[in-house]
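Memo to structure team: turn this sequence into structure tokens by end of day. - J.P.
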Amino acid sequence: MKRDVMGQTAIDGVEGLNRAGELGELGGFSRSWQLMWGHALYLIWWCIFFRPNAQVKGGALRVFGIACILVAAVAGIAGVVLECFGISKLSALPTLSAAAGRARSVWIWPFAVGGVAAYVILAVLTSRLLQRPITTELLLIVMWITLELCALTMLHSSGALGATAAIVLAIILLILLIADMACYLAYYHLPPMPAFVDGTAPLIAVAVFSAIVVALLV
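Reply from structure team:
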């Protein structure tokens, strides 16, 4: 009897995932191209206003740059909302636990708590111990890493992303985190041109990573 109940629970979990696919539960992820375009437009804005010896005091270039950052903000917020919507939907679905042989759901709150804790720790370490002024970039780095890690976990638990792809992307995320923090710490210690490259490289890497995730889900 116990085996029958466990078997039926597993079947129910798989059927739930199938219904999720039919109803478009992954839409929040497949439509998160807004977040990718937000990264791209932020990169354009950065290149316009922060390149060495940039003097954008007026004219069409300044208007274009301001338009880029405004659209980037809107696209970024829309992308985050859609991705959070997808995460919320997937977290409510049962996933099969191979070890226990029963259905379970994945919690979101550990990611949120971990993200807040990581930001506080990094802010204290970089500002007090390493004397690096706290800027918006640190918040963006932690928020993005946390969101993407949570999304990968939910996508894998739902069966939408295979184990190999999830592990490879998670490793890439870890590498990006280390590289982003290295660039964040080095920025104010570099001459103008190296500092510009130092700030540009992480933006390109993040945009490429977002494009890869979107491509995997399309």
